[in-house]
Amino acid sequence: MNPNNIGRHISYIYRAGQSYISKELEAYGVGSGQYTILLVLYKKDGISQEDLANHIRMDKANIGRGIKKLMEHGLIIRKTNPNDQRAYCVYLTDKGWEIQPKVYEVLTNWLRVLVKGFNEEEIQMSQELLQRMFQNLCDFEK
């Protein structure tokens, strides 16, 4: 096993995916760093900015920049957290909800590119192996 191959392949897939997603969502004001914020909000609208950063596993400064960009495009708003006046919660606007189908379409199309020629068993195995790698990373970071 050449450990450089795994990292190189993961890195290339990640970069190519970010480029594709950015290009496809550019017209909606969503960059590669912002779509993950939208994905969380589609499931947990009104989440605190800190919980959002923890959920995405991204530092607060990057989350802040992503939120600012999405706010500039009218896709989300921030409101003072009713439970903590020093913190903010993030909410989707109507415009943010309207692009949800497009966001999911772009991500589905990217997944189709990645698994072209895979059978269901190979897709399932790929998901399981990547989940195990992710869990190893989470355990390592503790």
TrEMBL record:
Question: By its UniProt entry, which SUPFAM superfamilies does this protein fall under?
Answer: Winged helix' DNA-binding domain
Q: Which residues form the HTH marR-type domain?
A: 3-135
- Can you name the source organism? Alkaliphilus serpentinus
Query: Per UniProt, which keywords does this protein have?
Result: DNA-binding, Transcription, Transcription regulation
At the highest ranks, the source species' classification is:
Bacteria, Bacillati, Bacillota, Clostridia, Peptostreptococcales
This protein is called what?
MarR family transcriptional regulator
Instruction: Read off the InterPro entries from this record.
Output: HTH_MarR-typ, WH-like_DNA-bd_sf, WH_DNA-bd_sf
- Which domain of life does the UniProt lineage start with? Bacteria
PROSITE patterns xref list: HTH_MARR_2
Keyword DNA-binding assigned to the entry: answer is yes
Query: Matching PANTHER family, A to Z?
Result: MARR FAMILY REGULATORY PROTEIN, TRANSCRIPTIONAL REGULATOR, MARR
Q: Name one GO molecular function term.
A: DNA binding
